Amino acid sequence: MSRQVPLGVLISGSGSNLQAIMDAIKEKRLDAVIRIVISNRDDAYGLVRARNHNLPTEIVDHRKFPAREAYDQALVDLLKTHDVELVVLAGFMRLLSPVFVRAFSNRIMNIHPALLPAFPGLHVQRKALEYGVRFSGCTVHFVNEECDQGPIIIQAAVPVFPDDTEESLSARILKEEHRIYPRAIQLYSEGRLHVVGRRVLIDDLEKLEDQALVYPPLKG
Ligand code: GRF
Question: How much is the pTM?
């Protein structure tokens, strides 16, 4: 059974994932309500997107805080003031301290533009190209105290082409991000996600038998 899960979305930049989430809510593919959009930067374009949707926004500048913990506590307080249940990191370029992670244990999601645990950290599309992988993709995971190592909820794989640039691969991955992030949140909203150790068990998950992706393709 689904309900409108109250979200707090944290951004630092373009906010295209925020846009995908707002669109999914509008199109009734996602049972959620965005209570607050918070940016650590006042020039984040995602703030414009949020205001265009008449969502409440706040800028909380990390440079005005003496330490990471103080900053994170301010974010936690603000999110709690808005009765946020699930925190959605959507291009939020800050590491979270235990102060934050413990306040929303298994209630923080992040999206990462690689197939974790491969290529954690930054500039991962470039690293995937340099490594020569045939597939990369994106991962939505719960956030724990280790960077990019929390329990995985959903992944999308895309092929990597020989003539890809960092930009072309990033664009292919970003398109999938916009599909899987709303889906991950909807699974949460439906109460179907259960964190057991490192794993996320999903109620009523269909199996994709005989659906391997192969690149280069087997034919020809
Ligand atoms: C995305 O590639 C996401 O995976 C990463 O930061 C980027 C954010 O893009 N964490 P946007 O701000 O949602 O457009």
Answer: 0.97
Return the structure tokens found at 134: 């045939």
The answer on pLDDT for 1 being more than 60 is: no
Segment 95-116 shows an average pLDDT of 98
> Do 97 and 67 touch, CB atoms closer than 8 A?
no
| Spatial distance between the Cα atoms of 143 and 92, rounded to a whole number of angstroms | 12
Residue 213 is predicted with a pLDDT of 95
The CATH number for 77's domain is: 3.40.50.170
In testing the pocket of ligand 1, which one of 12, 17, 88 has its CB within 8 Å of the most ligand atoms? 17
DSSP element (H, E) containing 25: helix 16-26
Q: Is residue 136 part of a domain?
A: yes
Range of the domain at 29: 5-202
Rounded CA gap, 65 and 29, in Å?
38
